[in-house]
Write a structure and sequence with these properties.
Blueprint (H helix, E strand, L loop, with lengths): L17 E5 L11 H7 L3 E7 L1 H11 L9 E5 L2 H4 L5 H15 L5 E6 L1 H5 L4 H12 L4 E6 L9 H10 L4 E2 L4 E5 L4 H14 L5 E3 L9 E2 L3 E5 L5 H9 L3 E2 L7 H15 L4 H22 L7 E4 L6 H11 L3 E7 L4 H10 L5 E6 L1 H11 L3 E4 L1 H9 L4 E3 L2 H4 L8 H20 L4 H9 L9
Parallel strand pairs: 1-14, 2-3, 2-4, 4-5, 6-9, 7-8, 7-10, 10-11, 12-13, 12-15, 13-14, 15-16
Protein name: Light-independent protochlorophyllide reductase subunit N
Keywords: 4Fe-4S, ATP-binding, Bacteriochlorophyll biosynthesis, Chlorophyll biosynthesis, Iron, Iron-sulfur, Metal-binding, Nucleotide-binding, Oxidoreductase, Photosynthesis
Enzyme class: oxidoreductase
């Protein structure tokens, strides 16, 4: 195999000091994860126990037509619930029973906590146990928190998957499990590459249906596809599974290193590995080179938002030629992102958590060529002349593995090119913004 060994720790960032930020932070609500999870689990329903604001957020973010029947909804907490004048548990039982009677296709029902339900200390774990006893075995009821009080938006997926692990069947069979929700086409590409190497029977969490033959035990090794799955990682290890630590599959280099970790675990020889990966690796390198021309020698600054920041910084600096000024993430779990830190050259400030005012000062002082941040900060920074990329778009868009590597680089290069066009022709900024931004594959601006 070609040498993909990371740089020595003396040149990597794993042991670099981390700036701990514990001030005011800007985060998107964890309920947002439902928007992609409800598409992955075809027999599941996500019932948010929240306010009308929660319902409006989900409806707006998902863009669901008024006559559609999506696999999520909101049980509205009324004033009587919030004031303790009504028995919220009884009302929840009634709503869930009516829902299951109307939708017999539901086999997994997730009760999703929100800020309002957590403020009034509504015990959704007890409700899930009670409803499971009532509706088993046809329906499995689980609960997790999607509250945005102290979490970032990708933790909704982490909490959901972590809630599923304890109820998985026990098996000691030797197996590989890919963990993390991916667009179907991307997941199929990953499984196909592994199958071509001779690794069959690959399991995926979350599975599309509750009746999938999905178990976990001492023979299970798992590879994370998303870096924000800390709770799921811990839950799987408690069940006896073993984590395959590797850089995340962003770009040609990260994807190859991720696949190599799995291939080495299953004894795949170098010749087979190279035969399977050579063509897609070449396509990925070519696509990245074309898409990243506008990124060479440019600087990038990451605000903490999605927890993808460290793997993406590794991709942008090593494969796209950018210079990272600051790489901030909501949480830094070295057991998960350690391999990416090993490959990220020293230089950028590493920050965990957020003190938004102080970080904005550092960003304004640095004047980066590109700032990756949340929606709430992007427009003000754009008004100050800084090119930005919405962090949430990197979660909603297919960006993993070889065939999407060029698209990933393009997500960062488009705002750079747009900024250059605006400098050349500021009089036509309105036309350039509308034409240059475009729309991503799920309707988000590019």
């Amino acid at each position: 195999m070609n040498d993909l060994s990371p740089p020595s720790l003396s040149r990597g960032c794993r042991d670099e000091p981390i700036l701990k930020q514990r001030g005011q932070h800007e985060v998107f609500c964890g309920l947002t994860g439902i928007i992609w999870l409800h598409r992955k689990m075809q027999d599941a329903f996500f019932l948010v126990i929240g306010s009308r604001t929660c319902a409006h957020l989900l409806q707006s973010a998902a863009g669901v037509m008024i006559f559609a029947e999506p696999r999520f909804g909101t049980a509205i907490l009324e004033e009587t619930d919030l004031a303790g004048l009504a028995d919220a548990q009884t009302e929840l039982d009634r709503v869930a029973t009516e829902l299951l009677a109307r939708r017999p296709d539901i086999k997994q029902l997730f009760l999703v906590g929100s800020c309002p339900s957590e403020v009034i200390k509504l015990d959704l774990a007890r409700a899930a146990e009670r409803l499971t006893e009532k509706h088993a075995p046809s329906v499995r009821v689980l609960n997790f928190s999607g509250s945005g009080i102290e979490t970032t938006f990708t933790q909704g997926e982490d909490a959901c998957l972590a809630s599923m692990v304890p109820v998985l069947a026990k098996t000691d069979a030797r197996q590989l499990m890919l963990v993390g929700a991916l667009p179907d086409v991307v997941e199929e590409q990953a499984v196909s590459l592994l199958n071509q190497m001779g690794i069959d029977g690959v399991k995926v969490l979350p599975a599309p249906r509750a009746d999938e033959d999905l178990g976990v035990g001492s023979g299970t090794v798992f590879a994370l596809t998303q870096p924000f799955l800390g709770d799921t990682h811990a839950a799987l290890e408690r069940r006896g599974a073993r984590h395959l630590s590797a850089p995340f599959p962003f770009g040609e280099e990260g994807t190859t290193a991720w696949l190599r970790a799995i291939a080495d675990e299953f004894g795949i020889d170098a010749e087979t590995f190279d035969r399977v990966t050579a063509a897609p690796r070449a396509r990925a390198r070519k696509a990245i080179a074309q898409a990243s021309e506008a990124l060479r020698d440019k600087s990038v600054f990451f605000f903490p938002d999605s927890q993808l920041e460290i793997p993406l910084a590794r991709f942008l600096t090593r494969e796209c030629g950018m210079n990272a000024i600051e790489v901030a993430a909501p949480f830094i779990h070295k057991g998960i992102v350690g391999p990416d830190l090993d490959m990220l050259a020293q230089g950028p400030t590493l920050a965990e958590g957020q003190d938004v005012d102080l970080q904005l000062e550092r960003c304004r002082d640095a004047r980066p060529d590109l700032t990756v941040c949340g929606l709430g900060l992007a427009n003000p920074l754009e008004a100050e002349g800084l090119a930005t990329k919405w962090a949430i778009e990197l979660v909603f868009t297919p960006v993993h593995f070889y065939e999407q590597a060029g698209d990933l680089a393009g997500l960062f290069s488009r705002p750079m090119r747009r900024a250059e066009m605006l400098k050349l022709d500021p009089a036509s900024s309105r036309e350039i913004n509308l034409g240059g931004a475009g729309a991503g594959p799920r309707g988000l601006p590019a």
